[in-house]
Amino acid sequence: MGMHRHLIFLLLLFLLLLLYAPDLPDLPRVVALSEDVAPGTLVAKVNVSCSNTSSSPNVTLHGIDPGHPFNPIAVSADPVATTTFWAEVTLRAGAQLDAHQVNQYTLTLWAACPGEEEVEKQLFVRVTADQALRCDTPFASVEGDVVQVLADVAPWTPLYAVLPQPLGGLTFRLRNHDTPLMLTRRGLVLAPASGFDPSKDIQTFRLEIEVMDHHGHNCSGAVRVEVLPPRRPRVTFLELQQAVTVPEGTGPLELVTQVRASGDNIHYAILAPTAPVLFTIDEMTGEIRSTRRLEVAHTHLIVQAYNALHPTDHATATLNITVQGTDQRAPSCVPAIVVTLVTLRCTGAEGNLHYALEGPPASRSHFRMDGPQLQVNTTLDYDSEATDTMGFQFTATIVVMVGGQPSQSTRVPMLVTVTPVNEFTPVCPNGATFTVMETAAFGSTVGRVTGTDRDYPRDSLEYSLEGGPGPAQPFSVDTHGEIRVVGPLDSQRHKSYRLTVRLTDTHNDLDPANRRSCLCDVTVRLQAVPAQVPVCTPEVQELRIMAGLGGHQPVTRVVCQASPNGATLAYAITGGNEDGHFRLEGNTLFYLPGDLAEPHTFMLLVEVWGGPSAPRHSTVVALVVHVTPQSTAVPPSTTPRHTTLQKEPLVITRTEAVWHPVAWFVAVLTISGALLLATLGCAARNLLCSNRDPGKLLLSKSSRLSRQGRPWGCAQDGDREPRRDHESNMADLLLASCSLLIVRGWLHIPVTAQQRELG
């Protein structure tokens, strides 16, 4: 008997251990969080106490919207207390808090230790308004930021971008309007629509800009745009080398020749010899005159042309001046300098004329003299590296001698400039395919188209988008081939875009109008952001309605939320709609009264999905609707006539949440219950039969009849001491039975929540 009591005590102790639950001593509590904190910030650290130290507890968040800004709970063990753990609540990546929209989050923390009951408590996170908007230091300074541009920039060119912190949801306003510059809604400063005036000197424009966010915070600053004159043309001589022959006896200050150069504010000077004796040059016109009466001589002059306002911009030319005697005059040739393939016409000397070419080997290998005619020996190629090394110019000297006598010779400088010819068409790149996220922001770079051109200079190309940006192709291509996003992207409508980019070569021909182009196909693929399944609350509803007499009556509304927020959801009844008694209009379920005579239960399945994506991500909501037909009293046929007023139907929404334990827990509990019942049965049988007298089993019929109503084999009424033990054992048995009933009730008590609303 003592053993039975000990066994019952152990069973009760086991049941009490099953009812033990973890503890969250820090909750509930309130924490304050500023809306400008960075993602990943620690919001709160909660203490979790467990009685079992075999493994860490499981702590999860419940009861908040799917788009909440918090990470899943991270649990770590306390290094000192083995039964204490710490649950950390942090902000997820990309979280943006807005105290004007949500100023408090209510977090429900569910904690469960291994082998223990779950417990839930609440943590309140209060969001406070952030600090004022901040602008960049150069922009917000008194002088403002400074940007320099050339006057020949194209209209609408972005010149400056205002970048305050934090970005997003900002508006930009121009305080002063006395400027031709423009300010966009995104904070970009653009060149005027008609461009700048290139005839003016340095121009300065100041813009005062105010930035405001959606909270009403603002900051301001200024930017000064300095417009510089366009690039000036370089000083260049029209003829780099000249050969001049003057007769002996030319008087002082007589015109010998004139040099000409192109550029701005051109002035001329003789560099060598440093102290010219025979010749002088006019600084403004470039006319070279003699300083005295000339005698037979040969003079080499180096003349410089420079920009008077910018002396570093200069060029030089060489002049060979020969003063010939009247008695042995060398041949006079036309032209005096060869700049193209011509035939020399030389006169003024008797005898046979001989022509020879002197100069660098590269020039002599490309040209030859056929009598007085200068001819090309080999093909000239402007696009070759050898021609580039020579500076696209070949220099040599044509020597014309009379009878082969060097004393009676004329030297004609040769300067042949190879000009470009646009021979080749640009070539498109191979596999011009780019990928961009469908959530890319305006102005984001997608990639760069890189074509090739064999003409010199290599790959001198301009890029443009055929048709321009628009709804059909939300991209732009600048002159350098950079592809940028200029419109909204939607991978549901367009998986990819096919852009036609025109490649046009530049600076490849002497005639700027002679240009070649080609069209290239560029593919931009959109990378979709994975769609998520809609979340419906609750997923199972049990409803009871009273059927009306006419029209369709509302039953309930299916409340679901899509991700991302704001996406359109579609609803459809996919099962259980017998005879079409129900209809969905949007997310509202209506009952269509019919010929239903008896109460009936409908189990409807409603599918919810988020738009026309493929494959479709959907959620199924189960609706259990108990319909009770409304009985209408029929008035008697006698007078007076009564009218029965129809009451507004009462729609009752009842939601029951039942705890469903895991399978292994049910199996263990079932086996334990069976063992407990077997033990109690054996104990009861032993208790009932322990006091029975074996010698009185064979009783007479009269004796047995006299004991009707008493347990068979039990002690007689006269046995007082055994009866007391029997009563004690019966009390113990009653106590164990009550404990078993308590356990059974604890395992089957559902958590029921009823919600009633008028339909």
TrEMBL record:
Compartment(s): Membrane
One Gene Ontology MF term: calcium ion binding
Residue spans crossing the bilayer: 662-688
Domain Cadherin: 266-333, 428-540
UniProt entry keywords in alphabetical sequence: Calcium, Cell adhesion, Membrane, Repeat, Signal, Transmembrane, Transmembrane helix
Pfam short name (any one): Cadherin
InterPro entries: Cadherin-domain_protein (IPR050971), Cadherin-like_dom (IPR002126), Cadherin-like_sf (IPR015919)
GO cellular component entries: cell-cell junction; membrane
Major place of residence: membrane
Protein name, UniProt field: Cadherin-related family member 4 isoform B
Domain of life: Eukaryota
Gene3D superfamilies: Cadherins
Residues in the signal sequence: 1-21
